[in-house]
Amino acid sequence: MKSSQKFFHQLLMLYRPFENRLNIHLAEHQLYRAQWTIMYYLANIGTATLVELSHYMNVEKPTVTRTINRLEELGYVEHVPGKDKREKRMQLSEMGRHVYKDVRVTIDQFEQEILKGVSEDEQNEAIRIMGKIQKNMTR
């Protein structure tokens, strides 16, 4: 078996269990991965339109719209007044920032647990490699 085949097989074998366990931890906070991804983006990158979020998450805009609507119902996100009234720019609300910090503690513990024995240099190398692959896929 070629190393590329092993690489992608290992990636597939890692992804599903990771997402399942992540969702278990997020459920403690009544969240799902898609909601967490949007909250992560808004907390770390800043305000965003629904189109920007759909590109970031690589999903259709209606999917993001449904997720944003749910986050709005929970009081975690809010509209940012923009130049263009047609543009729906979002940010974390004060409650959303508080919830993000609480959830971040849970996720940080989970991530540290599953990265035991993986050095920071190894993590950075994996990040670099995944970034290259992502760039190749979006060309």
Question: How would you characterize this protein structure?
Answer:
With 139 residues, the chain is mainly α. 70% of the residues lie in helices and 7% in strands. It has helices spanning 3-27, 33-44, 50-57, 61-73, 94-114, 120-137; strands at 48-49, 77-80, 89-92.
In short:
70% of the residues lie in helices and 7% in strands.
Largest sheet: 3 strands, antiparallel
Output the helix-strand order: HHEHHEEHH
Radius of gyration: 17 Å
Percent of residues in β-strands: 5-15%
Helix content: 55-70%
Query: Which structural category do the helix and sheet elements fall into?
Result: mainly alpha
Total number of helices: 6
**Low confidence ranges:** none
Strand order of the largest sheet: 1-3-2
Give the key terms.
mainly alpha; about 140 residues; globular; three-stranded antiparallel sheet
Write the layout of secondary structure elements.
Elements: H1 3-27, H2 33-44, E1 48-49, H3 50-57, H4 61-73, E2 77-80, E3 89-92, H5 94-114, H6 120-137
Antiparallel strand pairs: 1-3, 2-3
Helix pairs in contact: 3-4
